[in-house]
Design brief:
4-stranded antiparallel beta sheet, conserved putative lor/sdh protein from methanococcus maripaludis s2 fold, 6-stranded antiparallel beta barrel, 469 residues, Elongation Factor Tu (Ef-tu), domain 3, 10 helices, single chain, RND_pump_MFP, 24 strands
């Protein structure tokens, strides 16, 4: 009996103590969680759209930029968003700048316009002879150059004036045969026998053909027939008028049939072979207008058109040659002269913005559009051809949109800072807890918080209006 009492008494005491402690704990925390949750749900907080780490419990202005605070809305995961939540989600990527900040960041905007754009392709070229206007004077018969009318390279020759005179025994004999055939024809034409009368015409035609094969012209044959005696020396003519670019014979020299005497080139029209890089030659078309500029004639452009595009690529320079035909008045452009070519390629009508307005991230192109005064939003665009200072926008913009052409990278940086989450910024921003509307952390009962023992000097809010430009 005594043993049961010894066990029951301590057990009863332990149960009483446990019940008393549980009751005290329940009394201390009665309704705490419910009230805290209710307070958290019912308390409306306000934040700055540009500085999301600024949080206050009542409306007002941002202590940094002076903008009106907006309601801070924490959407439940998986729940339907209210219109205010949707508006705040859409405003995450937006950046708002005050007039002072726009001046400090050097932000300028222009309107996107629908206009025609032309691209200029700059290339280098070399002046060449027009190969269709070159000729070579050769000896059509073996003989001796008795007289040379052209003594120097660069001399101008005409197709109506002989460049040389040659003596040839074969040519002399052929002329005599022609004259003899004419006399025979005159004697035999009155014969009553048709075969004899017609034979005389055949002899004349055969001798005339031999003279023409020796390079004798119709007019020279007519003069030979009129004179009735052969010419000792035969004049040699050029097939075209031009400039002597090569002279291969001297006076008194013996030549054989087919030996070259002169090379002639007509420089009234020249070729310019321009070299276009492989990423630009798809824009080149036959018939395009080309402007040629030379350092020898500054301020005086020449004009030609693309006549041919070579079907091969130079593996060393990675360029494609395009042939430009152009007139050469006064023969100012000399062969082998270096020139600069400007080819204007029309790109059609499209929305055009300055090239500085487009930010290329490598995977996409972004422009900052001013949707409202001082409010900028990012816009993905698809770009096309570009010139020196402008670029086509194929999609993503419409005419009249204001885009930032300077300060875009600063706006993008501000957007990334804003979108990086503002929950931890208040710990490192130097703003006191009172400014954010959050209560200061409390220490143990009867003791001050560690920071309260030695308060840090408060930083003054940044007032950009006081900054002088």
């Amino acid at each position: 009996m005594s043993l049961n009492k010894k066990i029951a008494v301590p057990l009863i005491i332990l149960i009483v103590v446990a019940l008393a402690g549980g009751g005290w704990y329940a009394w201390q925390h009665k309704g705490h969680d419910h009230e805290a949750e209710k307070a958290a749900q019912g308390k409306q907080l306000y934040t700055c759209s540009m500085h999301p780490f600024i949080i206050k419990d009542k409306p007002g202005t941002c202590p940094i930029c002076g903008m009106e605070l907006i309601k801070k809305i924490d959407g439940a995961a998986g729940g339907a968003q209210t219109p205010e939540q949707k508006q705040q989600a859409e405003m995450i990527g937006h950046v708002s700048l005050s007039p002072t900040q726009r001046v400090m960041a050097n932000v300028a905007t222009v309107e996107a316009k629908q206009q025609s754009l032309s691209k200029e392709i700059n290339a280098v070229g070399i002046v060449q002879f027009d190969q269709s206007r070159q000729a070579r004077v050769t000896a059509w018969i073996a003989g001796r150059i008795d007289k040379l009318n052209v003594d120097t390279v660069g001399a101008f020759v005409s197709r109506n004036k002989p460049v040389a005179e040659v003596y040839s025994p074969d040519l002399l004999a052929t002329q005599q045969e022609y004259l003899l055939a004419i006399r025979s024809r005159d004697q035999l034409k009155n014969s009553p026998i048709p075969s004899i009368s017609q034979n005389g015409d055949g002899l004349v035609a055969s001798a005339k053909q031999r003279l023409m094969l020796f390079g004798v012209k119709e007019s020279q044959i007519a003069e030979l027939e009129k004179a009735g005696k052969p010419n000792i020396r035969l004049p040699i003519y050029t097939p075209l008028s031009g400039v002597v670019i090569e002279k291969m014979v001297q006076q008194g020299q013996y030549v054989n049939t087919g030996d070259p005497l002169f090379n002639i080139a007509d420089l009234s029209t020249v070729w310019v072979e321009v070299e276009v890089y492989e990423n630009e030659f798809p824009n080149i078309r036959i018939g395009q207008k080309v402007e040629i500029r030379s350092q020898s004639f500054p301020g005086k452009p020449f004009t030609g058109r693309v006549a041919f595009i070579y079907p091969f690529l130079d593996p060393k320079t990675r360029t494609v040659k395009a042939r430009v035909e152009m007139p050469n008045p006064g023969m100012q452009l000399k062969p082998d002269m270096f020139v600069n070519a400007i080819i204007k390629v029309p790109l059609g009508s499209a929305i055009v913005v300055p090239i500085t307005a487009v930010m290329d991230t490598g995977k996409r192109q972004v422009v900052w559009v001013e949707s409202e005064p001082g409010m900028f939003e990012p816009r993905d665009v698809q770009v096309g051809q570009q010139t020196d200072d402008k670029i086509q926008v194929l999609s993503g913009l419409k005419p009249g949109d204001k885009v930032a052409v300077s300060g875009g990278y600063l706006i993008d940086s501000e957007s990334q800072l804003k979108g990086g989450g503002g929950q931890d910024h208040s710990q490192h921003s130097g703003v006191k807890p009172e400014a954010t509307g959050e209560p200061a952390p409390a220490g143990h009962k009867g003791h001050a918080a560690p920071d309260a023992a030695k308060p840090a000097p408060a930083k003054k809010p940044l007032n950009m209006d006081d900054m002088k430009m």
